[in-house]
Design brief:
A hairpin with a 3-residue loop joins β5 and β6 (164-173). This protein has 299 residues and is an alpha+beta fold. The chain is elongated, with a radius of gyration of 24 Å. The longest helix is centred in the middle third of the chain and has 21 residues, at 176-196. α6 (221-233) crosses α8. It is built from eight helices and eleven strands. The protein has two domains: 4-98 and 212-298, Zn peptidases (Aminopeptidase, 3-Layer(aba) Sandwich); 100-209, Alpha-Beta Plaits (2-Layer Sandwich), CATH 3.30.70.
Length: 299
Amino acid sequence: MISPAEHPYLASRVGDDVITASGTTLLGADDKAGVAVIMDMVHFFVGHPELKHGKIRILFTPDEEIGRGVDKLDMQKLGADFGYTLDAGERGSLEDETFSADGMTVTFYGKSAHPGYGKDKLVNAIKVASYFVELLPKDEWSPETTEGPYGFVHPVRISGLVEKAVVEFIVRDFFTFRVEAYEEILRDKVQEALKKFPGAAAEVVVKEQYRNMKEVLDLHPQVSAYAEEAIVRAGVAVRKSSARGGTDGSRLSFMGLPCPNLFTGEMAFHGKHEYVSIQDMQKSVETIVHLSMIWEEKS
């Protein structure tokens, strides 16, 4: 069998170059880099039909950043048993674990009255919401103060009028039971705020966003093992890591498609200094070419 490394197309085609944006806006490497890597793999296989691989399904999804990328996906039509997302950054990265995540919305209801005659009548929902946010711990379970294996509670939006104020949260942790524990603490803080402001009321709504893919991938160890082997065959050191976020692979795994996340070379994403390494993108192409062939070899 001919190795991909023997093809000049995959043998150090590029130098140590990076692509950047102007510095005033996003580059969009997250996840245009993944799209480019996938299409380069397709181009390679089309040009080299002598290389054996199984059936490959290509899937592009929108709205991944808000957790809605696979809402309309027809799994039967996709017809795949295992998958990989191309959405990680540093060369060699293999992410087989993500946060479990919920969205939580707390709505406070006050009572409006003419402020000139509001004594013992007016209840300001904005003040209730502000007091509630101030009750949050400053030095623990906050994205400003946590890293590694620790989760967080993050207020992302607050809006309101006297009669109604809304605080929106994202709640994250690698263990789903901790996500639920954070939510119980927030509910307790809501009650504490209501006691401070008699006459106010509140409503709490929790919406599941995604769950830690590791819960599924641990049942299918070959999916990550083949990815590790492919990265090594591409001449790259494997960097197994846990994503402090989520990818479409999180939801796909729980939809019946075990799906870890592979590197593309995109770096500093979600900011104006985002860039992508061309040589790392090429190593990503090599990796998924090898990966496709490994599945064929081991079938």
